């Protein structure tokens, strides 16, 4: 498909304020826009590192009244974020109580230095160290 590009990934979140804090304050994204849909009883919030016109973003969908944790299923893998200092980033996130099920280090079979963290809903986020050029 000529001139196509990835716009966003949508994930459902139980506590929108908690998720917005995680993605903006802890991961440094910007809240790009947020809109309530009263007739559908849900809110959409878009976060990302750049503007939607030229960057892929995350759509956080909050269904009002959702009290149970979402079943994350076994089809979704993870989001990936490049960071310049993976060890420092993980140290700061750990101080904030972020779960780090796979601490930073080289991939088992060589290559990149990675870590896995979890957002407040348990979604996995791979951090990949990408040194500034």
Could you characterize the architecture of this molecule?
With 133 residues, this protein is of the alpha/beta class. Helices cover 16% and strands 37% of the residues. The protein has helices spanning 16-26, 86-95, and strands spanning 8-12, 30-37, 42-48, 57-63, 79-83, 102-106, 113-118, 124-129. A four-stranded mixed beta sheet has the order 1-4-3-2, covered by helices on one side. A hairpin with a 6-residue loop joins strand 6 and strand 7. The longest helix is centred in the first third of the chain and has 11 residues, at 16-26. It is globular and about 50 Å long. The two termini are 31 Å apart. The model has no long low-confidence stretch (mean pLDDT 94).
What would the average pLDDT be, to the nearest integer? Answer: 94
In order across it, which strands form the biggest sheet? 1-4-3-2
Helix/sheet category = alpha/beta
Task: Report the span from N to C terminus.
Answer: 31 Å
Biggest β-sheet description:
4 strands, mixed
Q: What's the count of strands? A: 8
Number of helices: 2
Secondary-structure element string: EHEEEEHEEE
Strand content range: 35-45%
Broad shape = globular
The radius of gyration is: 16 Å
Bin the helical content.
10-25%
Low-confidence stretches: none
Keywords:
133 residues, 4-stranded mixed β-sheet, globular
How do the strands and helices of this protein lay out in sequence?
Layout: E1 8-12, H1 16-26, E2 30-37, E3 42-48, E4 57-63, E5 79-83, H2 86-95, E6 102-106, E7 113-118, E8 124-129
Parallel strand pairs: 1-4, 5-8
Antiparallel strand pairs: 2-3, 3-4, 6-7, 7-8
């Amino acid at each position: 498909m000529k001139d196509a590009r990835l716009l966003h990934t949508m994930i459902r979140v139980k506590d929108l304020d908690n998720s917005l804090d995680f993605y903006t304050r802890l991961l440094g994204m910007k809240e790009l826009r947020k809109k309530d849909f009263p007739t559908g009883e849900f809110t959409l919030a878009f976060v990302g590192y750049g503007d939607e016109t030229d960057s892929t973003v995350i759509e956080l969908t909050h269904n009002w009244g959702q009290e149970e944790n979402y079943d994350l299923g076994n089809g979704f893998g993870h989001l990936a974020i490049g960071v310049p200092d993976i060890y420092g980033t993980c140290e700061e996130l750990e101080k904030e109580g972020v779960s780090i099920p796979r601490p930073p280090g080289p991939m088992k079979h060589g290559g990149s230095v990675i870590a896995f963290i979890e957002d407040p809903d348990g979604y996995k986020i791979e951090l990949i160290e990408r040194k500034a050029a």
